[in-house]
Amino acid sequence: MLYNLKGVDNMNQPLSYRMRPDSIDNFFGQEHLFKENSLINKIIKEKKLVSLILFGPPGVGKTSLATIICNNIDVQYRFLNATTCTRKDMEEILLDANMYGQIVLILDEVHRLNKDKQDFFLPHIESGLISLIGMTTANPYHYINPAIRSRCNLIELYQLSTKNIIEALNYAIKSPKGLNNEYKVEDEAIKIIAKLSGGDIRFAMNQLEIATISCTNKIISVEDVKTNTKVPQYLIDNDEDGHYDAVSALQKSIRGSDVNASLYYLARLIAANDIASIERRLSVTAYEDVGLANPSAVDRTIKAIETAKMLGFPEGAIPLGFAVVDLALSPKSKSSCNAVQEAIKSVEENVFPVPKYLRLTPHGLKSEEKYPYDRPDLWDKIQYLPEEIKEIEFFEGNSNSKYERALVENYMKLKINQRSADIASLKKKYNKKG
Question: Which of 51, 95, 195, 301 holds its CA 20 to 30 A away from the CA of 254?
Answer without folding.
Answer: 195
